[in-house]
Amino acid sequence: MNLALRLGAVLFLLAVWQVVAWLKIWPPVFVPEPVAVWDQLLRTSTEGYSGHTLAGHLLASLRRIVLGCLYGIGGGIVLGLLIGVVPVLRTLLNPLVTFVRTLPPLAYLSLLVIWFGIGEEPKVWLLLLAALPPVAVATADAVRGVHDDYLNAARSLGARPWEIPYRVVLPSALPEIVTGVRVAVGVAYTTVVAAETVNGVPGIGGMVRDAQRYNQTDVVVLGIIVIGLSGLLIDYLLQTLDRRLVPWRGRHI
Amino acid sequence: MPSPDPGDDETPAHSPAIELRAVTRVYRDRPALGPIDLAIPAGEFLTVVGPSGCGKSTLLSLVAGFAPPTAGTVLADGAPVRGPGPSRGVVFQQPRLFPWLSVSGNIAFGLRRLPKAARKERVAELLAMTGLENAARLKPYELSGGMRQRAAIARALAPRPKVLLMDEPFGALDAFTRERMQEEIRDLWRSTGVTVLFITHDVTEASTLGTRVIALAGPPGRISLDARVSEGLREKVEAAIRDAASARAA
């Protein structure tokens, strides 16, 4: 039922798109036909674009996203734990994290390019910096929100002080951390196109940028759709992970 | 209020399981408890009853070691309490089971330092004691309220504490389950010989469950009645609480 509804909505949008293209209100450079985009899908998948196939572009982007997110999530959890547990660090680091979080990634991309050149490093760094703050903030809040009873229960059961963070605090904070991870991956996804504006080929963002230079709107639209669809897929995977990791979410315990 | 020596049948050389000497606790300039003198001999089942806010839970957290007394000394087995520890198991009003662990995992939480085989054996023993054999692999959110609290009791008893501290453990259960749990905790007390400090605001529970009952009036919480449980006690307890309430209102 839901699937049918969604399929219907997609078909409807495609139909509207096709009709608008047919009416030629705007030239094809503004609104390419769905068929043209489909052709580009086939062509980029087989012949490639800018020297790489569509899959090659997508994999290059995904690799950056995965790397940036892994480092960002790892760093975010550690940083969030520290901010949540150590009051001095909270005072010191909280404004810094908020500062970085409110910056648009493009604002520090230039700096990263100066520091790390135009290879893979600045892109992964950019995604790391984009993914880290949401995880750090979610972790810090969750860590501070752990009910005293859990900590007291653990201490009464003989847990040593240094065991508490990983035996009680982190697992208690897991629901919020996983939510933070989903936000982080989303942010990394929106950032990857920006990261790939500088020497981004192979990469979906680089492909879109090249296509924009040559007014190949059909390739631009194709890139947008591929980014969106792969994002949907990844969020679905993260939701599955959420259910696996935090089966008690939303249940009264 | 004269406190009858409840340790008649204890040898005097034996220090009480729990002893409070002139203990007071102040929260942000507001006295919450004391001064209180109290000795709980080993093996006793002491219930503490009083209206909400009278300092019952403060008393429990001092004995558990969650908070230090503002003045006075809390002793467990003759040694000053410096923090929580496995010699004093705690059961909270909410079960507070770790939701990422199964029932077995929760019970095994305090058994880390046992070798694996001994740990498994101890967990099985506790599952049997609390009637949770068939729930070993279930997660806390898959249990009924009564089963959760049983698992919490099993978890607290696992490291063989000398004292079991219970903070209104059946307060959130329905009447039927509560009665059954009261039976079960008495059986567990008899079979394990653990000393129980049981906080409740339920007068019936207080005057029927244990071997000795103290009524707290407050804040700041003070012992307004200290009696062995016997016939006709319930009326006395009720009267003590009524008096304390009217004294506070006046």
TrEMBL record, chain A:
Keywords: Cell membrane, Membrane, Transmembrane, Transmembrane helix, Transport. The chain crosses the membrane at residues 65-89, 96-118, 124-143, 219-238. The keyword Isomerase does not apply. It comes from the Bacteria. It is found in: Cell membrane. Residues 58-238 form the ABC transmembrane type-1 domain. One of its GO terms (cellular component) is plasma membrane. One of its GO terms (biological process) is alkanesulfonate transmembrane transport. It is a multi-pass membrane protein. InterPro entries: MetI-like, MetI-like_sf. Belongs to the binding-protein-dependent transport system permease family. This is ABC transporter permease.
TrEMBL record, chain B:
The keyword Cell inner membrane does not apply. Gene3D superfamilies: P-loop containing nucleotide triphosphate hydrolases. Residues 18-245 form the ABC transporter domain. One of its GO terms (molecular function) is ATP hydrolysis activity. Keywords: ATP-binding, Nucleotide-binding, Transport. PANTHER family: ALIPHATIC SULFONATES IMPORT ATP-BINDING PROTEIN SSUB, TAURINE IMPORT ATP-BINDING PROTEIN-RELATED. This is ABC transporter ATP-binding protein.
